[in-house]
Amino acid sequence: MSTKGSNYGDIHRYEPARESTAAAVAIVLLTVIEVVFIGLFTYGLVNGWGLSGEGNMYLGFLLAIVFIDLAFILLLYRKEFLPDVMIVKKRRRKWEDLYVREEDVDGEQLGDASALDTLKRAVYPYYKR
Q1: Percent of residues in the chain assigned helix, strand, coil, to nearest 5
Q2: Where would you find the membrane-spanning parts of this chain (predicted)?
Q3: Helix (H) or strand (E) holding 85
Q4: What single string gives the DSSP state of each residue in 49-63?
């Protein structure tokens, strides 16, 4: 489904997710494996495996496996169950964010000078020529 609109926020391209059963089964299996590794890591922490050199390396390995498994779960979920949507965004030139007038570097003062707390608002990102 595509629209021809070029206004900010219009959907330019929309492709629905595949939602395959194999990916759902893989996510469930990876989640079970994740819970097993988290349980093993917690058991090792409680029993003091981290006090020895080998046990500390083993706990580090288990923690690395937990995060790698979580990465695969999130990757499968993003690829199989989230739609591919491209929206129209406002295009900005590369140099616009870097352009600041010399007198506007410190911002401009809001309120009178006698106030205890004076606010300064930086004009840097929102300056328009």
Answers
A1: 50, 10, 40
A2: 21-46, 58-77
A3: strand 84-87
A4: GGGSHHHHHHHHHHH
49 contacts 59 by C-beta, under 8 angstroms = yes
Instruction: Indicate the pTM of the whole model.
Output: 0.59
Q: How many residues does the chain have?
A: 129
Strand partners, 42: none
Q: pLDDT of 81-96, one tens digit each?
A: 988 887 776 666 555 5
What is the b/e burial string over 99-128, where b = at least 16 CB atoms within 10 angstroms of the residue's CB?
eeeeeeeeeeeeeeeeeeeeeeeebeeeee
